[in-house]
Amino acid sequence: MDFMTIKGKEHYLYDNADEFRAFHTEKPLRHYWRDGVEGEWVKTDDDYVCQILRRMEIGKKSCVRTVCGTFDINNKREMLGEDGIAESIYSFSGKKEYFSKRVSKGQFLFAQYVAQGVDVTEAYKKAYPRAKSEIGIQQQIGKLLKTENVQKMIKEEIHKCLEDEGVTADWIIGRYKDIADLAERDSDKLRSLESLSKIAGLFDLNEKKSEQLTVFAGFTPEQLEEVKNGKATPLIHAAAEDATE
After folding, report:
1. Pick from 78, 173, 69, 63: which is nearest to 117 by CA?
2. Residue 133 contacts by C-beta under 8 Å, 6 or more apart in sequence?
3. Beta-bridge mates of residue 70
4. What span, in angstroms and rounded, lies between the C-alpha atoms of 171 and 199?
5. Range list of β-strands (E), the chain
6. Is the dihedral of CA 217, 220, 223, 227 positive or negative?
7. Could you tell me which residues are beta bridge partners of residue 69?
8. How many Å apart are CA 92 and CA 137, to the nearest integer?
9. Per-residue pLDDT tens for 200-222?
10. Distances (CA, A) of 238 to 44, 102, 142, 215, 226
11. What is the pLDDT of residues 117-134, one digit of tens each?
12. Is 186 part of a structural domain of the chain?
């Protein structure tokens, strides 16, 4: 058994149903966490027991928050009690590294919404409900998308979503190599070789360059399939000029 304290209240993660029953003899226990509603006790995929602290909609996704972290109920990612209580129950990655004095609640919420596919304007309005000026909102969105911590939060959440679908760095490199080895057209081979060369750091990077932040946000199952087929379209694309010393 383990627990974490949230706003002065202890929230527990029990090792199994028997341990849970030793403390809660009358409370119902739902056997599948994906069907749980807010306040219910549920089993994780490896038969630990925790409580649904919140059930909510983030973008087009139905999500639950527990001491194990925040989970999309329609994603194949499992909730495992063996992993213990999450460093941060508010992020899909479960990591705490996002939270620092330089990251505000609004920035964190904005990054979460964007990573889950909410339009950037709508994401800003959800994160900053008191904002009214459309011109001001667009200006602030531009600033947020260039903020290092916000970029990092969005990337981390999207990487987690991709990894849950099997789209890892090794998988991407493998696909590039397959194209370079098997493609019939020289142009396809060349593009794959150029991409692999960049990944390997073979290009001269000591010249002025344009760094691009490409965010693949809001994946539907169809869009994730496009990612796997190399056809995905970025929803956010910001370019920033910088010079490398």
Report:
1. 63
2. none
3. 65
4. 13
5. 2-6, 9-13, 29-30, 41-43, 49-51, 54-58, 61-66, 69-72, 209-215, 236-242
6. positive
7. 66
8. 26
9. 665 554 444 434 444 444 455 55
10. 39, 22, 9, 9, 21
11. 788 999 899 889 888 888
12. yes
CA–CA distance, 41 with 52 (Å, rounded to integer): 6
Number of structural domains in the chain = 2
Instruction: Find, among 20, 45, 220, 200, the residue nearest to 116 by Cα.
Output: 220
Amino acid at 235: L
Residue-number span of the structural domain to which 74 is assigned: 2-83
52 contacts 42 by C-beta, under 8 angstroms:
yes
Angle, helices 186-200/169-182, rounded to nearest 10 degrees: 140
Bridging pattern class, strands 69-72 and 61-66: antiparallel
Over the chain, what is the mean pLDDT? 76
**Boundary of a domain, candidates 83, 105, 123:** 83
User: Residue 56 falls within a domain, yes or no?
Assistant: yes
CA–CA dist 20, 2 (Å, integer): 11
Whose structure tokens read 């001269």?
204
CA angle 60, 236, 159 (to 5 degrees): 65
Say what the pTM is: 0.45
DSSP-assigned beta bridge partners for residue 61? 58
